[in-house]
């Protein structure tokens, strides 16, 4: 067992599909405030791992504990896990295109009571301040009243990160945030995630190693391979690890 306190602890997790172990005896520990990057070749089990954390799928065996083992995520359903403060951003942005940037954030507010109440009911002055703060953080204050559908791809990704903040997610699971972005947008995404680190706990799944280097900066990087943690450590160490080179280059 990992030393306490921890935010998330996965131990001995295994998840098979038709006898194939997509996740195989996985151990993974996350401390509060960490910004952790998870890399690994296609098919390594990254998506399945996020599915297990969010309760989208359940493991065959293993344990998954939250907040110093106060909660057993395996005994909770997807909605209960979401309510604990575990938010996920998928690779493709899923914003409400016909609503403004601000409305998207209002709809995501923690405790939001449905679309009608959110948009036409009263929001408190604290919530207004919180939305203004998020708009500044995600650098979309100038687009607050524009429809989300007309935002650039990168801006939609930032809005989605903003929606996780509005949800008051304690853990942000961010799947390939830089996919399809220009170099400039990628860099700005890295800056955004770095600005959130410490205040939030973030797990980023990413392929782009320039981006991984930007956001890692001495932080721990986890390499998944065949559903198992192959190695963990600072990005330089991981990138020069013989096992990692072999997995990526097939040598
Ligand atoms: P990654 O996100 O690292 O590319 P995945 O978690 O998507 O990896 O997949 C890991 C392995 O599990 C792959 O070989 C994939 O084909 C398999 N897999 C994932 N989900 C399913 C499923 N629902 N049914 C069958 N096989 C699956």
TrEMBL record:
Which SUPFAM superfamilies does this one have?
P-loop containing nucleoside triphosphate hydrolases
Query: Any stretches that span the bilayer, and where are they?
Result: none
InterPro entries on file? ABC_AA/LPS_Transport, ABC_transporter-like_ATP-bd, ABC_transptr_urea_ATP-bd_UrtD, BCA_ABC_TP_C, P-loop_NTPase
Gene Ontology MF, one: ATP hydrolysis activity
Domain named ABC transporter: residues: 8-251
Task: Supply the CDD domains for this chain.
Answer: ABC_Mj1267_LivG_branched
Cellular component aspect of the GO annotation? plasma membrane
Pfam hit, one: ABC_tran
Query: Record keywords: Transcription included?
Result: no
Q: Which UniProt keywords apply?
A: ATP-binding, Nucleotide-binding, Transport
Q: What is this protein called?
A: Urea ABC transporter ATP-binding protein UrtD
UniProt lineage: Bacteria, Pseudomonadati, Verrucomicrobiota, Verrucomicrobiia, Verrucomicrobiales
């Amino acid at each position: 067992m990992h030393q306490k306190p921890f935010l998330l602890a996965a131990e001995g997790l295994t998840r098979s599909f038709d006898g194939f172990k997509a996740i195989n005896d996985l151990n993974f520990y996350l401390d509060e405030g960490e910004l952790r990057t998870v890399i690994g070749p296609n098919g390594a089990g990254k998506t399945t791992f996020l599915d297990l954390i969010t309760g989208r799928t359940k493991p065959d065996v293993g344990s998954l504990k939250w907040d110093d083992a106060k909660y057993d995520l395996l005994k909770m359903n997807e909605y209960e896990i979401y309510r604990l403060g575990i938010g996920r951003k998928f690779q493709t942005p899923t914003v409400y295109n016909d609503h403004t940037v601000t409305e998207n954030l209002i709809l995501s507010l923690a405790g939001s009571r449905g679309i009608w109440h959110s948009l036409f009911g009263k929001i408190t002055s604290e919530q207004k301040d919180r939305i203004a703060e998020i708009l500044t953080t995600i650098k979309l204050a100038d687009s607050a009243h524009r429809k989300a559908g007309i935002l650039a791809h990168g801006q939609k990704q930032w809005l989605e990160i903003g929606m996780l903040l509005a949800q008051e997610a304690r853990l942000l699971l961010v799947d390939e945030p830089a996919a399809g972005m220009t170099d400039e947008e990628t860099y700005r995404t890295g800056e955004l995630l770095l600005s959130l680190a410490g205040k939030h706990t973030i797990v980023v799944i990413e392929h782009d190693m320039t981006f991984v280097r930007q956001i890692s900066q001495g932080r721990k990087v986890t390499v998944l391979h065949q559903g198992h943690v192959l190695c963990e450590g600072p990005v330089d160490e991981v990138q020069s690890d013989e096992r990692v080179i072999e997995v990526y280059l097939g040598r």
